[in-house]
Amino acid sequence: MLEFIFQIAVLIMSVVIHEVSHGFVADLYGDPTARLKGRLTLNPLKHLDMVGSLLVPAVSFFLGGFIFGWAKPVPYNPYNLNPGRWPETAVAGAGPVSNLLVAFIFSALLRIGMASGWSEGFIHITALVVFVNILLAVFNLMPIPPLDGSRLLFALFPDKLYRFRNFFERYGFVLVFIFFVWQFVEPVVDVIYRILTGLPL
After folding, report:
1. Phi, psi dihedrals of residue 200, rounded to the nearest 5°
2. What distance in Å separates the CA atoms of residue 70 and residue 142, rounded to the nearest whole number?
3. Most exposed of 61, 109, 145, 158 (fewest Cβ within 10 Å)?
4. What are the tens digits of pLDDT across the range 62-91?
5. Which residues, in sequence order, are CB contacts of 143 under 8 Å at separation 6+?
């Protein structure tokens, strides 16, 4: 149970950073929606989703041995963004990039801790932070609507195909794939984790 508490705490803070990053970049590019709704905060209570932040992580932990979940999406209005596709692309990429940045910082701490003989508890929690953030980044970069990867992919579509975006986003049943795409996500997560930490997953 203690392990589950540690994992869900790391997950919640990681998804909060992910969502706040979306809102922060949207605000930079002209859309104040997240700021006006009080969502540009690291206070997890402002972002918790009962299903994605508690129920799904519990089910994935006790049935699959790993933890996964999400927070309430930070709202933004793409029509408020500066003209062009780059602002929306930057907003979509902000979440995964923030998770990779967190993973990079904590992997550096992990290497320092292992070299300095820091406590096993610190090493374990730090490794967990690295793993969870890599997982969130890789999963969200998958080109399945409404994940961030699909928005990055749509930004590359020619103008005449861009109208299909609403169709794909409307019928992208991402929840159905969560437990089926792990076989594709896990190898990528494993490679990145080994590169950053020098440890097996």
Report:
1. -70, 155
2. 15
3. 158
4. 876 777 778 888 988 888 989 887 898 999
5. 149, 150, 152, 153
Reference 138, options 76, 72, 193; nearest CA is 193
Q: Which residues contact 185 (CB under 8 A, 6 or more apart)?
A: 135, 138, 139, 142
Whether 8 contacts 57, CB under 8 Å? yes
- Better-scored residue on pLDDT, 163 or 195: 195
Residues in contact with 193: Cβ distance below 8 Å, sequence separation at least 6, in sequence order:
130, 131, 134, 199, 201
The whole-angstrom separation of Cα 14 and Cα 102 is: 8
83 prior amide bond cis, ω within 30: no
- Quick one: pLDDT band at residue 162, thresholds 50, 70, 90? low
Active site (catalytic) residues: 19
Tokens of 56: 């799904």
* C-beta separation of 113 from 76 below 8 A: no
Please state the domain count of the chain.
1
Closest CA to 129 of 98, 94, 175: 98
Write out the two tokens for 176: 């159905």
Rounded to two decimals, what is the model's pTM? 0.85
> What is residue 163's predicted lDDT score, i.e. its pLDDT?
59
Residue among 117, 137, 127 at smallest CA distance from 201: 127
Q: Residue 45 has which token pair?
A: 């209570």
191: containing domain:
2-197
Cα 106 from Cα 98, distance rounded (Å):
12
